[in-house]
Specification:
The structure holds two protein chains of two kinds. Chain A is an alpha+beta fold. Helices cover 38% and strands 25% of the residues of chain A. Chain A has a single domain, classed as Glutaredoxin (3-Layer(aba) Sandwich). Chain B has 16 helices and no strands. Classes of the chains: A alpha+beta, B mainly alpha.
Chain lengths: 76, 315
């Protein structure tokens, strides 16, 4: 499974990244979470950051950030 | 009801002496704090609920290929209700320009969004009353519309960084939340914002109370009153570095106003705090060439100073 966290690197983007890590640990999913900070790469999916992409599909974008439970649903 | 409650706490519960500076200040502190936090909770909740109907993707579609003026007015209004994380100002800018939103219209959106924000409005409403809050809202929208039109007229597209036009954007589908999700979102956002600003507000109300009780009346009239020509530009210059603390600045400004600071100066200061911030300039530098950035800051500064003088003269 390929998971991307999109965002230029602000407070909220970091928070989302941590939340995803935690959700994966709780579900004991093995996989790679990548942070994408390059604007051109981000724009391929959305202009509304922070965003979450699972296997090439945009599942969340913008504020408010999803909590751990929501992220668990989004990635499983 | 809030007034009698704060009186009850100070004089009955704490059994403090009536009429002393300290008990006066404490009564004000309790009253203002309760009032502001109740207002914040209610208004942020409503605003957040409304915002769930205006995701940035939808706003972009509304504004795409809009004409001057109508586009600018719409952009300024949508700037108030479209939620976005400050970090997405750059992707948003690119997305707007990319999908045919005119540059001037994009700027109207980017100006109004931070300036006309609900926390600033609640603080103004709670401390200064609805007339001044409304005045701020209308003036803020006018500044955003005007600033955007001027930037549009100047034909500055060539000063947008070139790579912006080369980026291809994917078309994200808009996920429409259910009613329950909107309510949950509004609740979450309300707590989130209050968690971020409560300490600033408490400290500021505290300082405001102190100024109220201890600084002599008319202290500022000579330096920052209506008649001092330089009070407006100085207020604007002071407002630029004070970015994230808009919520905390207002109670202090409120107390200063009672000591002689004039309203035009206050409004100019508020606008400079919210609309001209150093961190935002640094973010926007990623998509704007320096010249366009300077023009943007220049137009905003002149407009805000003008607004300050105007209110000092007519009020």
């Amino acid at each position: 499974m390929e998971i991307l966290v999109l965002g230029p690197g602000c407070e909220n983007c970091k928070k989302l990244y941590e939340t995803v890590k935690k959700a994966m640990a709780e579900l004991s999913i093995d996989g790679d979470v990548k942070k994408v900070e390059d604007i051109a790469e981000i724009m391929k999916y959305t202009m509304n950051t922070p965003a979450l992409v699972v296997n090439g599909k945009l599942v969340h974008s913008g504020k408010p950030l999803p909590d751990v439970e929501k992220v668990k649903k989004l990635i499983s | 009801m809030l007034k009698s409650f704060s009186r009850y706490v100070v004089y009955d519960l704490l059994n403090l002496e009536k009429g002393s500076h300290f008990s006066d200040a404490l009564e004000f502190f309790i009253y203002d704090t309760l009032k502001i936090f109740i207002l914040l909770a209610v208004i942020i909740f409503i605003v957040s609920f409304v915002r769930s109907f205006f995701p940035p993707e939808k706003t972009k579609r509304y504004l795409s290929h809009k004409k001057e003026f109508i586009g600018n007015v719409l952009a300024a209004l949508l700037g108030v209700v479209t939620p976005f994380c400050s970090c997405s100002a750059v992707p948003l800018f690119i997305g707007f320009v990319e999908s045919g939103v005119p540059l001037g219209v994009t700027f109207s959106f980017l100006i109004s969004s931070p300036m006309v924000n609900e926390v600033a409005l609640v603080m103004l409403f709670g401390l200064f009353g609805w007339k001044i809050a409304f005045l701020y809202l209308v003036t803020g929208l006018t500044v955003a519309i005007f600033g955007g039109i001027v930037i549009g007229r100047l034909k500055l597209e060539k000063y947008v960084e070139e790579y912006v036009f080369k980026i291809k954007t994917g078309e994200a589908e808009i996920i429409s939340p259910t009613f329950k999700e909107r309510i949950a979102y509004a609740k979450f956002n309300t707590f989130d914002i209050i968690r971020k600003v409560w300490l600033f507000i408490l400290i500021a109300i505290g300082i405001g109370g102190f100024i109220h009780g201890y600084v002599p009346q008319d202290f500022l009239v000579k330096y920052a009153g209506k008649d001092n020509f330089f009070s407006v530009p100085i207020a604007v210059a002071l407002g630029v570095p004070l970015y994230s603390n808009a919520a905390g600045v207002i109670p202090i400004v409120y107390a200063l106003m009672q000591k002689g600071l004039s309203l035009g100066t206050v409004l100019a200061f508020m606008m400079a705090v919210t609309a001209l911030s150093l961190p935002e300039m640094i973010i926007l530098r990623k998509v704007l060439r320096p010249k366009l950035l300077y023009i943007f800051v220049g137009i905003m500064t002149v407009t805000i100073i003008f607004v300050g003088y105007m209110f000092n003269i007519i009020l």
